[in-house]
Amino acid sequence: GHRMTWQKYHRYADIVNWATFLRDRDPMVKVESIGKTHEKRDIIMLKISKSGGGSKPAIWIDGGMHAREWISPATVTYIANKLVTNNKRQYDDLLEMFDWYIVPVVNADGYEFTHTGDRFWRKTRSGTGNIYCKKGVDPNRNWDFKWGSSGSSKDPCSDIYAGPRAFSESETQSMSQKILQLRSQLKMYLTFHSYSQLWLIPYGYSKYEKPADYNELVRLASQGKAALERTYGTRYQMGTAPDLLYEAAGGSDDWAKGVAGIKYSYCLELRDTGRYGFALPASQIVPTGEETMNGVAALARSLATKL
Ligand code: 0X9
Ligand code: ZN
Question: Which pick of 16, 35, 106, 115 has the fewest CB atoms within 10 Å?
Fold first, then answer.
């Protein structure tokens, strides 16, 4: 069995056990290690696919890039579990239409450290050579697209340290290679962060650079956002990160669109808007999972009409 309950936040080992449980129970699920973290943990990816072959359009989902954003892995596992369980066959169409690649915790070292050391750790756990300050690299400043150009720091002590070079981190390196390997299949890239209730559209690196198809991305996202909001009335704002937050280069969403060429790339900042922030009570996991699942399902359904 497994211990996953979505009634509390789980350790990485529980998440890995739950994934292997699903794999053992359902032939649709495969679990693969896409690489190792700095501390040699396996970065696991679930592949949910009704067909053996890999020619179907696919959707990528990841969570836990920033260690302290606990609602992200909780929501991503909730979504994967819903898809696999497919209660009353409500997601039959989504399983017929797409293969799903899901990485619940990209930054597993950081995530574990938020349970054992510092609850509000953000970065990876790699050494930076500077022993007098916080180690680690911000994995969402480490991707090789406009790397280091804005909203990131060259100071290893900073929480937004971009790293010594693009893809210096094993976590971003491993994940980017897997995405490139799947690029012809991938039609949508979704990365989950927290908090602020934002549906972010590329690009994040510059106030002035919007992709040529920005309006198309907005239109598709509006479907997802509406379904999410309809669930419990949770309000989201939509726009680019520079419009709603700040400029920041080296994010995975920008790279997925700008380099991997995945047209529909989004970053969601989940609940809440700051009352609890990163310390969102576990009682909000299920409602957050539910509304976000509805958003993702509506998003995937409208994407399906475009393929
Ligand atoms: O700063 C970030 O990496 C994200 N916000 S968070 O509070 N979760 O740290 C926003 C990333 C938006 N995307 C890009 N700037 N590319
Ligand atoms: Zn984040």
Answer: 115
